[in-house]
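FW: tagging you since you asked about this chain on Friday. Here's the raw sequence from the shared folder, copied in full. Didn't touch anything.
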Amino acid sequence: MSTVLHDEIVVDLGDRSYPVFVGSDMVADVELMIPDDVGKIAIVTQQNIKILPKLARPFQIFNIDDGEQAKSLATVAELCSGFARMGMNRKDLVLAIGGGIVSDTAGFAAASFHRGLRYGIIATTLLAQVDAAIGGKTGVNIAEGKNLIGAFWQPSFVLCDLAALGSLPQRELQCGRGEMAKYAFLGAEGLDRMPLHAQVSACVRIKANFVESDEREGDRRALLNYGHTLAHVVEAVGFDDSRVDLKHGEAVAIGLIFAARLAKRLGRIDQARVDYHYRVIESYGLPTKLPIRVDPDRLIELMFKDKKSFGTLTFVLDSDSGVELVRDIEVDPVKEELVEFNS
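HL: got it, structure written out here
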């Protein structure tokens, strides 16, 4: 790599292992990461992302729309049609350049076309760098919920280019900090006191460890969904209610607070631990409550459809021994906490 300062973290998955590089101004190094036998490259990005690496082989650019609405089966169908018109085959490469919306959608299209094309990621947002681009979870939304259709499909490489963060709006940076806050409860104590490259690398290392031990989210990897149960259902409500104007990281921050409050209601933690959740979230300048009142019954209905629920109310909850996956939670305490939290 030509960058002077970068960290390399390997996601060790045997023959599906791949490197994650964290550093600045690494776009020029993309060609070094592309396998020699790649013939054509499909670049999936967005119109407002002004990053285009110099490539030595033929490529075509596909711009997808902004926002969660772009994460759809219709977008995947459009991309796959474009790949077909290019004449792409399994030796070719999809290159996602952008944030989590781009990597999730492009990754699912890559996993689907010809039952699997190789793909790489240049992660340009903080959220993608610390979470979305790592681990091979790809997918799209449907009206019934967020990320309900997808596949596990590991990338060939991930570049977390910190230089790209300089052009991000403040709210996009806050969105990434919502995911970073989650890692404070998963082993990254003192994260906010580290320089940025160390923060990103620490998050990547933690996520890589979870992915290596549980690639397909059978159990332990589900802990990475801490704060996401409420986050995902609130985002789903926002699909048809414009008053719920939350970025993913903001929704996760709110979900972390709710999960802490629910854990206290269930006798798993004390008020001091709940207060610690508030301090962490507030230290990142993130919201701690829902922007509008939402029908608790509607939220619970969506929670039962969560992909980790297996037909029961399932949350990742804190305890004296750390966060744990808890299944078969009774409806009443969840509803009671939603009513109090949402008042």
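FW: The radius of gyration is 20 Å.
HL: agreed, and Residues 46 and 63 are 5 Å apart (CA to CA).
FW: great, closing this out.
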